[in-house]
Amino acid sequence: MGCLSSVTSAERDGDRRRAGGHIDQDRTIRALGSNRLLSDSRGALVEHAVRIGQGDPPLLLDEEAAGRTDIENLFDVPADHRRVRDYSRDGVLRSIEQSLERLGLDHIDIVLVHDPDEHEREALEGAFPALSELRDQGVIRSFGAGMNQSSMLARFVRETDADVMMVAGRWTLLDRSAADDLMPLAAQRGVSVLAAAVFNSGILAMDDPAEGATFDYGPADVSPTPVREALTRLEAEGLVAKRALKGYAAAPLLDEAGLRDLYDMRELLEPEAARRASTQLDQDVESELSASVVKMRTASAPDDDETFRNYRRFIDEDLHFHHLIAEQAQSPLLSEAIVRLRSHMHLYRLNFRHDFEHDTVSEHERILEALRRRDPAAAAEAMRTHIENSYRRLGPALARRAENASE
User: Fold this and answer.
1) Could you tell me one molecular function GO term of this UniProt entry (predicted)?
2) Does the residue 158 lie in any domain?
3) Rounded Cα distance, 330 and 208, in Å
4) What is the predicted pLDDT for the residue at 271?
5) Does 199 reside within a domain?
6) H-helix or E-strand containing 397?
7) Is residue 310 part of a domain?
8) What is the 8-class DSSP label of residue 253?
9) Rounded to an integer, what distance in angstroms lies between the CA atom of residue 114 and that of residue 86?
10) Cβ(117)–Cβ(152) under 8 Å?
11) Is the same domain home to 298 and 370?
C-alpha cells in the first residue's frame, strides 16, 4: 500500500471551514473500510491530498503509516491545510522536511510536483533541481510531476532527469491524448508513467447519472478481445488470479512456504539452464551477459546505491541476465518456466531494499566465468550457489513481509 498526495507546498491554517466542507476522521475511517486498506492492500495508492477532508485524512494516514518501512511510502511535496503555490527550491526542501518529520520516516519513495501549469519556469529552475539533489542524497527515491495535461509533462521528461510522471484524465477509454506526446517520449527515455483518473470519462464522470443510465463507449475503439487475451496471459504468468463471478484481481504475494517452493523450483531449473547454455553459448550472448554484469556493477556503486533509478536498473539487469541464460539453453519449455518463476521475484524485489548488490554481482561474475569456460558442471554449480545465497539474503525478510501484509 502506498499513499499518494497531490499538493506542492504548505503553510498551516487553523481555519478548516473552507469550500468543499470538512471530513472528520470517522468518515475517513469508514471510507478506508475500517483502515483495511492500510494493512491489506496489494499496491493501492491512497490519495494524500489536502483537498480530501481539508487536511484530516492526510494527517490520519500519516499517523497510520509513521514508522512503517515495510510499505511503499509514496508522497509528493505535501501540505497540511492551506495550499501555497511555491515551486522554489526552499519551498520544496521545507515541504519534504515537514513530511519526513510528520511521517516518522527517513525517506520518501516517490515525490510528485503538483500542477505547476502556471509556474513552469519556477518548477524547472527550482523544484526539479532540488528534488534531483534529494534523490542523489537518498532522501527521496524518485520524483516527477502530476498534472491534468500531457504536453507540459512531456517537456519535463525532455528537460529534466525525472523518474516518473503522473497524467490525470489523459489516458482513459475516451481520452488518449497522452499517446500523442507523453507516452512515446516516456518510453524512449525510460520514465515511468502513472495513469490517474482513468475512469474520469463517460458515465463514470457524470455527477448524478440517472438510474439505469448507459453510455456509448464505442468511440473508445477498445475491443474486449485484446483485454481478455492480456488478462489470460497475466493469469498464465501468475500475476493475476481469476475469481468466480468476480473477475480478475492481482495475485497475492507468496507466503513463506510458497516462497521456499519458488526457490526450490529455481534450484531445479536454473542450474540446468546454465549447464545447457554453457555448451551453446555464442559470442553475441556472451558479450550481452558481460555487459549486463557491468551494468549491475555500475548500478550498485556506493554513491548511487540509494537512488531508486539505479536500483531499478540493477534488478532489471539481474532479470535480464537470468533470462538470457534461460533462452540460451535452447529449451522453450525450460525457458518459459524460468521466466514465469522470476516474475514473482520481480514483484517482491521492486518493493524491497537491501545491501547485498555487491555479493550478487560477484556471484553473477562467477556464473559468467563458468559459461565462458564452456564448463557445464561449474556453470550449474555457480548458478545453484547463487540461488541458495539469494534465498539466505532475501528469503526470510521477504517471507516476514508477506506474513505481515496478510495479518
Assistant:
1) DNA binding
2) no
3) 58
4) 98
5) no
6) helix 376-406
7) yes
8) P
9) 10
10) yes
11) yes
- How far apart, in whole angstroms, are the C-alpha atoms of residue 77 and residue 96? 6
Strand partners, 247: 243
Q: For the chain, how big is the Rg over CA atoms in Å?
A: 23
d(CA 308, CA 132): 12
- Amino acid type, 75: F
Report how far residue 187's alpha carbon sits from residue 194's, in angstroms, rounded to the nearest whole number: 13
d(CA 184, CA 343): 25
Taking the whole predicted model, whether its pTM rises above 0.70 is answered as: no
Strands in 108-114's sheet, in edge-to-edge order, are: 108-114, 140-147, 164-168, 192-196
More confident position, 197 or 385: 385
Asked if residue 259 lies in contact with residue 395, where contact means CB atoms within 8 angstroms, the answer is yes
- CA 389 vs. chain centroid, Å, equals 25
pLDDT digits (tens, 9 = 90+) for 59-81: 444 444 444 444 444 444 444 55
Cα–Cα distance between 404 and 407 in angstroms, integer? Answer: 5
Report the alpha-carbon distance of residue 363 to residue 386 in Å, rounded. 6
Question: Do 239 and 285 share a domain, yes or no?
Answer: no
Q: What is the DSSP letter of 177?
A: G
Residue 48: all three cell numbers together: 494524500
Are 246 and 355 within one domain?
no
The answer to whether 360 and 318 have CB atoms below 8 angstroms apart is yes
Which pLDDT score, from 0 to 100, does residue 17 have? Answer: 32
- 64: amino acid identity, one letter: E
Q: Quote the pLDDT of residue 399.
A: 60
Residue written as grid cell 510528485? 112
Q: Which domain holds residue 45?
A: 2-147
Biggest alpha carbon–alpha carbon distance for the chain: 74
The alpha carbon dihedral of 197, 113, 108, 128 has a sign of positive
Three cell numbers, residue 371 = 559459461
- Say what the pLDDT of residue 212 is: 72
Residue 47, classed as helix, strand or coil, is strand
Query: 121 and 237 share a domain?
Result: no
